Amino acid sequence: MRFYFLTIFRRCVFINHRDFQVNEQIRDKEVRLIDQDGKQIGIMSAKEAYKIAQERHLDLVKIVPNANPPVCKLMDFGKYRYELSKREKEAKKKQKIINVKEIRMSPNIEDHDFGVKLKSAIKFLKDGDKVKVTIRFRGREAAHTSLAEDLLKRFAEELREYGNVEKAPSMDGRNMMMVIAPKKQ
Q1: Do 39 and 70 lie in a common domain?
Q2: Rounded distance, CA 144 to CA 156, Å?
Q3: What's phi and psi for 159, nearest 5 deg?
Q4: Of the residues 44, 70, 93, the one at which a domain ends
């Protein structure tokens, strides 16, 4: 796989380009030829292989350029590229992107606010996203980390049927955080 860089107004654009040599682009003296069924025809000059490809109304494609001699195959190159792009699109559809949503609280949060944060966390977990619950400490609140840890454990207990604790409560500077992953369905 090669990357080509195009510089347009000082911006870099990546182009993913499969580098296949097709038909007249093959400049090797000798090639090992394989037909469309996968049977080996033999070693011959590139011109002879190209003539065979034209007779069969197919393309000559170099598939293994580093071999000695290079391996070429007879195939319908347009159809091959179409099927390749179709497979890549199908693989992209099957991917599941998991986002991490953050919920911030303070250690002395009221019950109603706690319920609102809980409802939003339930919504995130039902959508299949991970939830990162963070408690920020300001001033003297940092001396009472045990209260914040109890609050996070209570939060995890309330979310038990929707998700599992992936990362237990831990301190990170002036913040205490915990990560909850959605349950598998």
Answers
A1: yes
A2: 19
A3: -95, 10
A4: 93
